[in-house]
Amino acid sequence: MEIVIFGATGGIGRALAQALQGRGRLWLTGRNEAALFELAETLGAEAEAMDLSDETAVQAFLAEIGPVDRLFYAAGAVFPAPLARTDREAWERTFTANLWGAFLAMKHARWGAGARGVFLGAYPQRIALPGLGAYAASKWALEGLLTVARRELRGVRLMLVRLPAVATGIWAPFGGPPKGAMDPEEAARRILEAVEAEAPPDILEL
User: Fold this and answer.
1) Could you list the pLDDT tens digit for every one of the 206 residues in the chain?
2) Coiled-coil regions in this chain (predicted)?
3) Which of 2, 128, 139, 181 is within CB 3.0–4.6 Å of 177 for a Cys-Cys bond?
4) CA distances from residue 186 to 62, 74, 152, 180 in whole angstroms, order as listed
5) How far apart are the first and last CA of the chain?
6) Which CATH architecture best describes the domain 2-205?
């Protein structure tokens, strides 16, 4: 089984990679090159650091793998700021991590028979908050993209995971995760349980 994890150095991506060790050949990507290769060595996985804005790099990476059986898109970013102070760079970095990379993964993956893809989203009503305009827009756009992709990519099961607060590094700009945030390992366990079900849901709400 060929298993790909985008964003493997993030909290949920790392937890997924660790839980998937031994289930097939693992292919990992991430922004933190040192952490990525250390994780890959520990798990006996393949790894490639890449810029998700680079379509050629993503295409070449997925072409090297061949038919993908399981793809997990766990990359993500948030740069909180009021709309009046959100600059183009922050907007583009947010959309690259949360949406553009997911689009490239769907576009260029050679999906194997019975393949399944998992994309991390959010509860729309919980992220409609001041300072999260770019983040909310990118996550809502991801839901729309997946709705269309399900109709185009016949034979592939694509699952959106609406996440509650999970104790990962994405909360660093806010001073850390809120009290009671879910552990990444618990999130990974529930995601894997759902994706391996006989009929995975289109939307998994944790």
Assistant:
1) 999 999 999 999 999 999 999 999 999 999 899 999 999 999 999 999 999 999 999 999 999 999 999 999 999 999 999 999 999 999 999 999 999 999 999 999 999 999 999 999 999 999 999 999 999 999 999 999 999 999 999 899 999 999 999 999 888 888 888 999 999 999 999 999 999 999 999 999 99
2) none
3) 181
4) 28, 15, 32, 13
5) 26
6) 3-Layer(aba) Sandwich (3.40)
